[in-house]
Design brief:
The termini are far apart. This protein has one domain: Rossmann fold (3-Layer(aba) Sandwich). β7 (173-177), α6 (185-202) and β8 (205-209) form a beta-alpha-beta unit. It is of the alpha/beta class. Helix content is 36%, strand content 24%. The longest helix has 22 residues, at 239-260. The chain has a six-stranded mixed beta sheet, with helices on both faces. A four-stranded antiparallel beta sheet has the order 2-1-4-5, with helices on one face. The protein binds adenosine-5'-triphosphate. Adenosine-5'-triphosphate (ATP) is lined by residues 24-25, 31, 33, 51, 53-59.
């Protein structure tokens, strides 16, 4: 019998990281991708993670989502401490409680849009709740495209299928890694509006990595990383404030390199 994942925490924090470190490799060639990150991600909020290339954004997202094991520290989703779950329970938590949206849409080409959307439920042996499925499909604007296969859909429509697939299990948190990275600006804006809508109307928690200050402007909060460390955050961000903060990060990073000869944390 499947082991049910632990209950959702009620302290308003959907995901918490403490002392989170991730090192790739050993010895002199080791890379410290994350270096002692402490962060709380509020439930029912849209958080963007930003920072220069190589600052650890994707590594952080993967560690928070239980896709990658930590070198040190803890990650909690709801009241589940990921480090204490064995592989089976971790798989169940990811399957039942977490939704993913990736830059590449990762749809199965042989399945229709509808079959792709309900795939996580099918894998879990669960039937879709028809009312909820209708609501999710309507929210992503795909009601008249459900029988199309991915090759018959535009990139924006494919990503909207992927967002619907992430929402259909009513996960505690949706992790999105550069969800607009493969889209033109109009389709990207639609996907961002959709994620925003999921937060506003479904009380969904969304955590998104992005390079795009316009995309980050849709979030409630922007978390800035540099060299594997949390640097600062912005609440109610605008594109301009995000751009200013990123420019400030580059100055700090350049100063660090000038003084030490290498970037901090490496
Ligand atoms: N599997 C891996 N093996 C070795 N090093 C890795 C691995 N994955 C990431 N790294 C290194 O960890 C650091 C952080 O990488 P990460 O992909 O998290 O950064 P990022 O901020 O998402 O970068 P980008 O914006 O370019 O996608 C980089 O120095 C990267 O080269």
């Amino acid at each position: 019998m499947p082991v049910p994942p632990p209950a959702r925490a009620t302290d308003g924090v959907a995901v918490a990281a403490r002392g989170l470190s991730k090192r790739y490799g050993d010895g002199p060639s080791a890379v410290v991708a994350l270096d002692g990150v402490d962060l709380d991600f509020a439930a029912g909020r849209f958080t963007a993670i930003m920072g220069p290339s190589g600052s650890g954004k994707s590594t952080l997202l993967h560690c928070l989502a239980g896709l990658d094991r930590l070198s040190a520290g803890t990650v909690r989703i709801g009241d589940a401490d990921l480090g204490r779950l064995d592989d089976r329970r971790l798989t169940l938590l990811r399957r039942d409680r977490v939704g993913f949206v990736f830059q590449k849409f990762n749809l199965l080409p042989a399945l229709t849009a509808e079959e792709n959307i309900v795939l996580p439920l099918a894998i879990a042996g669960r039937r879709p709740d028809p009312g909820w499925l209708r609501q999710v499909v309507a929210a992503v604007g795909l009601t008249d495209r459900l029988r199309h296969r991915p090759a018959e859909l535009s990139g924006g429509q494919q990503q909207r299928v992927a967002v619907a697939r992430a929402l259909v299990t009513r996960p505690w948190v949706v992790f999105a890694d550069e969800p607009t990275g493969n889209l033109d600006s109009r389709s990207g804006a639609e996907v961002l509006r959709l994620l925003r809508e999921a937060v506003n109307t479904l009380d969904q928690t969304v955590i998104m990595v992005t390079h795009d200050p316009v995309a980050a402007g849709h979030a409630d909060r922007v978390v800035l990383l540099a060299d594997g460390r949390f640097v600062r955050d912005l609440t109610a961000p605008t594109t301009e404030r995000v751009l200013d903060a990123l420019a400030g990060l580059d100055l700090v990073a350049a100063g660090g390199r000038d003084r030490a000869g290498t970037a901090p944390g490496r």
